[in-house]
Structure formats: structure tokens, C-alpha cells
């Protein structure tokens, strides 16, 4: 091979290599361009790019115009839950009510179905969102519309703008009506539009234009460029916060709102003047001018407000203003307090301020020292109130910062006026007549001194009220419930105690027997009605005999005696009930213990304690039969009863009613029970009554009546007879009429031998006398009938003797 041939061959190889390199570069360039194009198509919404849905993609309810591609083997998918198909089918187009969740083709390829949603539309003027707000025409030429939505991979969002009349002005006011990506924006220009409300709607541009995929907002366009000042109300009660609005300005501009010092309330301070305007809402700062002047040289109070869009809102605190028509002025942009005198206000308005009212419902004229009450009343236009008391000097604080509710009422519950508060409570701790006052808390904060007192002049300057309050000492009463002055030890063993103790939170109950045993406790007094009650209080190990019962209250000073209760040889200071219990463990007698209780409480030097004392017999249970008589014929003792009547049994007991039962049985001579009745009702006198029928008693004769209370029995023997003779029962009720009949009888004896007819007449007279006797029986009182002698009276016997003598004389003749 020649050198030339080698050279040609090498040149050929070089050319071939060069050509291959060029082709490779071209191929790579083509691949890159294709890949870039593919990547660009992937960023485009599915509806427009015709990209298929592949494994892991999200699709939307109502979506259409796509296919399942990639590894999907079918165009029909099933819903997957907990890893298994649940029967819900997914096809194209997707139903608007398609159940959300995951769907798959059974081969591991899945998609997720969600609800399409436009979550927010913002209309921004600079950094301020004016959606559902207002903007002036001056500031409406470059508004930014921002839309947040979740379906930008499926399709875009279209914007429409409508005027107040419903005219579609979208193309005239939007740079671009399509938002392609979540959070995308476009420019809105309303500067050339008329004033009114404009509605901006965002919705899916193709299929997703339903439900949550549609959202609207509004913006109010104003053309008023004149600065104005409006007040929410033409009148206010002093203490109200009055809202004002500056209108017509430009966004973020500042304006001064001013009230002159001539409209301040009398006696105002520098601090008051600085609080005339509240630093709330769109207010940047407040103050009084000149800043370093004393109260007499202050010219006005001011507030600087910043426009939010076309308005700025602030508030006036009227409690520092006079009761009159108050002028409020607004100044041009950037006028400082020092420039007010050299500028005219751009607008002004006024508000009529009137005096607020406070009323007191409770206390209502009388207060019992130490009693717990609810303090309440009404206070218009006050946020809080304070209560005071006054004797002859200044008002002294009891309590402050009591909230006033939205319905203008205030209340302080369960409050002891004479104890729980400040120096004013000390005034009300002694009986007497004082002044009770309520005043607006804001005024109190301004005028109350370090000793928590207010002079009468300052008190009256504020919104306040006062009333006369008579303070009285509490009283104590108590009732010990016994039965006929007794308590049965072996059956009941307890006692009920009740009473009233005004001005007290609690009282002490104490019981002392003759041997010096004691039982004591404390019981709570109801704050609503000042009553106390202790039911079934156990008398413990008290001995039988006379027991003294005591209820003791601590009086207005809320302490028993000198508040130093100790036992000899023991330095411990006891509460009164504990001290009495300790005395019961000593060797003292009952009288000695009672003397010590009295000496340490009501008889202690300077003590205002009170005590109620009573006594009763602590003894065995007892139930007795006292009287038995037929119903309708009340009588003492044991009396006969008719076989077909009703037996009334009366008796006495020392057992508690309701908790015990008395049973009465009527038994025959064989001790067989013929009748049984029972009762658990009787009074505190212990007298009980039972009516026992005789339905099962068929024979006359002797019977036994037996009472049984479960602990004791008593018996009485009665006679059951065929009937009770009323004339026999009433016999001897009238000696006077009987004497008349005897006299008639004597006359008839005198004339007996003269005429049988006279005898007959005398018999008639005797019958008449018997009738008179019956009449006298019916007219005489039961007392008189009881006092008459049974059988023939003395007068009748004398007449009989005289008659016998006359007969003897006649026979001698």
C-alpha cells in the first residue's frame, strides 16, 4: 500500500467520523427540543393539552374531555376504600355528584376524585383587600384581582365583572379575564365607572362552573371626594361610647377629629381631656392640645384617624363631656394639632349628651347587720359602678368595679355590707341611719382619693344616686319541737330545731342535761330568708331527765363573747360548739355548764351575742289511754258503748308523729282481737284520737281496749251494751224542773183522798213535769248536767217525808 493510499483512507475516515458527529448533534438537539415541548405541554391544563390521566393524578367532580392513559387498562374504574373496590364506578364524564375518594383499575393504577373549589377572591388596593368593601374612583384604576382555586391542572378560571344594573363589563375593566394558575392575578380598572356596587365572579372556564367552583365578591365604588363626618346617633347618655365615621377621604390619609374644651364636663382633668377620644378602630393616636398645658389651658381634645379605603372609624367617650350639644369637627389631610387654629374644619356635626341614670333596687331601705344580701340595680351608660356609704362626712368606699350587664343591670350577690367591703362597710356595721350610694366607676377613678373616699360635691358631679339606709341589729328566735314537752329517749332520741337569725351566717345549737353531759353543733342560716333548720338532731348520750336547749348567735361583731374560749388547763382556743362539747367531758354539773355558757357569750363584757333557751324532759316512751266513749257522746273516763255504735278512744303520748304509729285493738274475754285501728297523726301536745267501729262485735259484755306504740302498751276495760238510753244519760240534768214536779206531786198527795180525778190530774202534771225536765235537760249546759246528783234529789226526799206524815195524821183521825 502506497503512502498516498494510506493518506486517502485516513481522510475518508475523518470525513465519516465528522459526519457521524454532526448527525449525533442534530439527533440530540431534536430530542431536547421534543422533551422541552413535552414538558411545556405537561404544565398546561388537561382540558387544553389533551393530556391523558395517568396513575396518581387528581380529577374533579364534573370534569369531562379526558381519557385514562399510561398504564390504565380500562376507561371504567372502581372506588377503592380500605384497599378494596367498593362498587362505586368512575367513568368519563365524571358526575357532578361523584363520590370523592380513590378509584382504580384493579391493576394498581389509581386516581383521586375531589371537589373543584374556588376558595377565595381578593380585590387588592395596594396591600389592602377591599373585597366586600369600598374604594373611591381615585384609587380604583389599578386594583389587583387574585383567585385561589384547586383545579388548575384540569382547566382555568374565568372572571366576569357586572355593574350594579347587571351589565357585563368584563372586557372593559379587566386586562385578562382568565386566571390559569392557583393564586394567579389580573388587573381591574374601575376608575372610569360610575359609583355603585360591582360584582366579580370566578368560575371554571369549561366544565367546572357549578357548586363550590363558583365564587363571587363585591366592591363598592364611591365617587365622593369631599371629606365628611357622620355620627352614629344624634344623642347619647353620658357614659355611652359614640361611634363616628370620617368619609370621602383617600386611602391611608390621616385626619384630625376635634372637640373643644368648652364642651368638657365641669372639673375635668388633663387625664380626662386625653380620654375624650378612644384609641380604637382606625384611630392612630389621641391626645389633648397643648400637650403640656394644665387643665385650665387645654384648648381641645383630638384623635388622628387613618382612612381605610374611603372611610375611617373612631369613638368618643362621652363620660368626660358636658350635658349639652357637643360639636365634633374633622380637618383636612395632614393637619397637625398645632395647625388647627390656622385651618378651617372640612366638616362638623354634633351629638346631644344627656345625664345617665343609676337606680338601686336592693338594699331597699333597711339592712340587718351581718346579713348576706344581693346588691342590685340599673345603671344606664355605665360599664361599671362602685358603692359607697356615708355617715356625716365624705363618702367611703364599700366595693368598686361591679360590672354592668348589657341590659343596664348590675348585681353583687351574697354580699355582707357590714363586713365584706372597705371603710364604708365599717360604717354599716353599727345600727343607725346612713346614706348608701352608687356611682359610675369611671367617675370614681377620677375623683377618689388615696383613702378611698369621695367628697359629696365630687360624688354628685358624676352619674350617681343615693338613698337612706337604716341599719338594724339582727334578731334571734328558735323553736324546739317536743311532744307534750318531752322527747322519748328509747324510741326517738332526736329533736327538730328551727328558727330565724337575721344577720347571721350560722348559729350554735347546744343541749345540756342535769349531769353535765352536752351535745353541740353549728347550723347554717339561709341567706335568702334568714332561717335555719336542723331536723332529727341526735341527742347522743344525754341522760334522762330535764335537758336545757340553747340556740346562740354571735351578734353583729361576728364573734362569741371575747372570742377567747379555752378550757382550764388547756390553752387551745375552741370554736363555741367545740368548747361546749369539751365542757361536757369535764366533771361540771349541768347548772355549772349553763352558767359558763352564759358567762362566755351573752353576759361577756361588751358582748352582743344572743341566746334562746328552752327545756324539755328526756324520758322513756309513753302512750296511755285517757278516755273511751260512744261517738257523739263525748265524756271523760271509760264509758259504756253500744254494740252497734262507734268507739272513740282518746289518749296521750310523747312519741314523734309520722315516725311512730299507735295501734288500738278491741279484744273479747278470750283475748281474741275483734277490731283494730291505728294512727300516726297527732299534734305536739301528744293527744291522739282513734275511732273504732264495732262491726265485728256482736255480743254485749265486757271487752278490753289496748293501745300499743311498739314500745309501750296500755289497757282499759269497757262494757258493750245493747243501746245507750239517752234519758238515763241526761237524767238529773235539771234539779229545778225536777223540784217543780215534786211540788206538783205533793199537791196531788194532799188531794188524793178527795178525788181520784185529782190524782189523775196530778199524774198528768207529773207527766208535764217530766216533759219540763226533758226540756230543761236539753237546754242546760253539759257542765250543769255533770254537777247534778243521780236518782232522787234532796227536795224530792223531803216532799216524800211530808206526804207520809200527812197520811199518818189522817189515819189517826
Provide a brief overview of the structure.
Helices cover 20% and strands 38% of the residues. It is of the alpha+beta class and 813 residues long. The chain folds into seven domains: 47-114, no CATH class; 118-222, Immunoglobulin-like, CATH 2.60.40.2550; 228-354, Immunoglobulin-like; 358-472, Immunoglobulin-like, CATH 2.60.40.10; 476-618; 623-724, C2 domain (Immunoglobulin-like), CATH 2.60.40.150; 727-812, no CATH class.
What would you say this structure looks like, in words?
It is a single chain. The protein is of the alpha+beta class and 813 residues long. The chain contains 14 helices and 49 strands. The strands form 11 sheets. Strands 16-24-23-18-21-20 form a 6-stranded mixed sheet. It is flat and about 125 Å long. The chain starts with a helix and ends with a helix. 32% of the residues are buried.
